[in-house]
Amino acid sequence: MSGRFVRLAEMDRKPLTFLVDGAPVDALEGDTLMVAILTSSRRLRDSEFGDGARSGFCLMAACQDCWVWTSDGDKLRACSTFARAGLEISRRAPEATWPNLP
Amino acid sequence: MAEPSIIVVGAGPAGFRAAQTLADAGLRPIVMDEARRAGGQIYRRQPEGFTRSHQDLYGTEANRARSVHDGFDALLPHIDYRSDTLVWHLSDGQAWTLGPDGHRSTPYDALLLCTGATDRVMPVKGWHHAGTYSLGAAQIALKAQACAIGSRVVFLGSGPLLYLVAAQYAKAGANVAAVLDTSPFSARIAALPNLLCQPAVLWNGIALTRDIKKAGIPVLYGVTPVEVVGNPETGVGSLRFRASDGTEQDIDCDAIGMGHHLRPEAQLADLARCDFAFEALTRQWLPVQDSDGRSSVDGVYLAGDGARISGARSAEVSGRLAALAVLKDLGFPVDSADLTHLRSAKARYGRFARGLAQAFPWPSEQAKALPDETIVCRCEAVTAGTLRETVREAGAREANRAKALSRVGMGRCQGRYCGLAAAEIIAAEAGVPLESVGRLRNAAPVKPIAIGTARTSGE
Ligand code: FES
User: Fold this and answer.
1) What is the ipTM of this complex?
2) CATH assignment of B121-260?
3) B136/A contact by beta carbon, under 8 A
């Protein structure tokens, strides 16, 4: 699948693989999650308001348009978090897990 | 007296020079920076393991970038440097932070805010489509990650960054479809008297435009954007605009980098209860400061683009000057020749900045003309029509009331990217001057702090 971002240089870095929604994504050491995801895909997440795909906006940790989640439910900014081998990322917010009320 | 606690927020050119000046005086300032590596945005460093040279990354500013980076590294033994640390609130003389070691609060006697800037953006119909980025984002993708934001990129807006980023993309081998400037060329001529006070910087700007044209990239002035034509699934497909001769045109592209110069990140100054004043030239509310960077609040000082958009060179000067103001107010001896020299340099940069604001005006009339269905707030999908309705029906002629009623400025970015345009829309609909709409107040936390508690960044 063709991606959104285009690599122009620095391609000799060590490759690594992590999971996005259960599927492996190839990245290079030093890639942010955003770059790793968007060099192979055209969307980072879906707007929760139904207006379509989103792929971040500011890349400087200011707009928060790039949230993704770890398998533990931690929220990360894809533009300011580095990809690491073995990371498991979900593009969708985990379901709110409220304790069962009696 | 015990050594005073001085906090510098930000490790860009202003924060670096401020910290260096304080350390030179024998003090040990605390430098808190949100980024993992010092340098700020314009001199942002690439991650370890990347090999491009300073010349590749920063062009004509390579030597300045290197002196900021090397200078900061040399300063490390003399400062308490806290990277990866977000200052999310200021209250009771304390800075509340979230960093690698969790939540902390640190009391201060003096606080130097060197918080930098973000892109000032005028929405365009369809700018919510994936593939639309700020100009700053386009530059970071290249500088920090060696990527272009798309395989066919249009740069839209105005300001020095428009040309800088386009030229950097062309040089790096990216495919740039066009540079579309919303400002008319005549504005640049009118701004010349002010711009000529920094001939070297002006010349760099002219050279950038020449490089872009030499690369065969069309550069159009006086453009009015009409629509980012796209698809909710696949994102940006083309940009529709009106050229200066009135003809409507479409340019195919899969990415757009847009912005209209910059806006100060002044949230912390607001939380510190600094006074703000409306500046008619840039149509923005800015924190009030004296010639040296003292805010209206005792013990709070301002420097760099976080106070006034004047660029990285100016930030080095205003950072030093604000640090001298701190030293003076704390009773340390300060060389008055230094003060005079820095004040006149800062004034010169200020004049140049006014020239840039004249040359690349904020296109406020575009806000008025936005079709009702345009999403103005990308975070909460609030449209121009909803904002106008709020004004008509609820009489919400004040930004914070309209914010409460429409939720504009209450989403993820907290109004950073829509606030200025929303205020223009409200003012136009209410038929009142922009300054009477007031400004969006900032609330703590200045950024969502549930983010990144896992702190995986930078490991
Ligand atoms: S893209 Fe704006 S915060 Fe990540």
Assistant:
1) 0.93
2) 3.50.50.60
3) yes
Does position B452 have pLDDT exceeding 70, yes or no? no
- Ligand 1 pocket test: pick from A33, A35, A45, A66 the residue with the most ligand atoms within 8 Å of its Cβ: A66
Subunit contact A76:B149, Cβ cutoff 8 A = no
Return d(Cα B225, Cα B243) in angstroms, integer.
Answer: 9
- A84–B456: do the CB atoms touch at under 8 Å? yes
Pick from A31, A47, A61: which is nearest to B381 by CB?
A: A47
What type of residue is B350? Answer: G
Residue A78 lies in a domain: yes
Flag whether the pTM goes above 0.90: yes
Q: Does B72 touch chain A (CB under 8 A)?
A: no
**Range(s) of chain B covered by CATH 1.10.10.1100:** 364-437
Pick from B52, B451, B458: which is nearest to A77 by CB? B451
Q: What is the mean pLDDT of residues B301-322?
A: 97
Residue A73 domain-assigned (yes or no):
yes
User: Would the pLDDT of A92 be above 60?
Assistant: yes
Query: What tokens does B353 get?
Result: 């900045």
Using CA atoms, how far apart are residues A16 and A39, in angstroms rounded to an integer?
Answer: 14
Q: Which CATH architecture has domain B6-118+263-356?
A: 3-Layer(bba) Sandwich (3.50)
Residues with Cβ < 8 Å from B216, sequence gap 6 or more? none
- Using left for φ > 0, alpha for ψ between -120 and 50, and beta otherwise, residue A21 falls in left
pLDDT at B442: 83
Interval B352-388: pLDDT, tens: 999 999 999 999 999 999 999 999 999 989 999 999 9
Each residue's pLDDT tens digit, B243-265: 999 999 999 999 999 999 999 99
Overall fold of domain B364-437: Arc Repressor Mutant, subunit A (1.10.10)
Determine how β-strand B176-181 pairs with β-strand B219-220. Answer: parallel
Distance CA B453, CA B417 (A): 25
Residue limits of CATH 3.50.50.60 in chain B: 6-118+263-356, 121-260
Q: Is A66 in the pocket of ligand 1 (CB under 6 A)?
A: yes
The pLDDT tens digits for B156-178 are: 999 999 999 999 999 999 999 99
Q: Is residue A102 part of a domain?
A: no
Q: Look-up: residue for tokens 């999650």?
A: A33
pLDDT at B458: 34
Q: Show the domain range for A81.
A: 15-90
Collect all residues with Cβ–Cβ distance below 8 Å to B235 and sequence separation of at least 6: A4, A42, A43, A52, A53, A55, B129, B130, B131, B132, B254
The C-alpha of B179 sits at a distance from chain A's nearest C-alpha, in angstroms, of 19
Q: Are B166 and B269 in contact (CB under 8 A)?
A: no
Contact yes or no for A65 and B378 at CB 8 A: yes
Residue A82 lies in a domain: yes
| CATH label of the domain that carries residue A38 | 3.10.20.740
Res. B125: pLDDT tops 50: yes
Domain count along chain A: 1
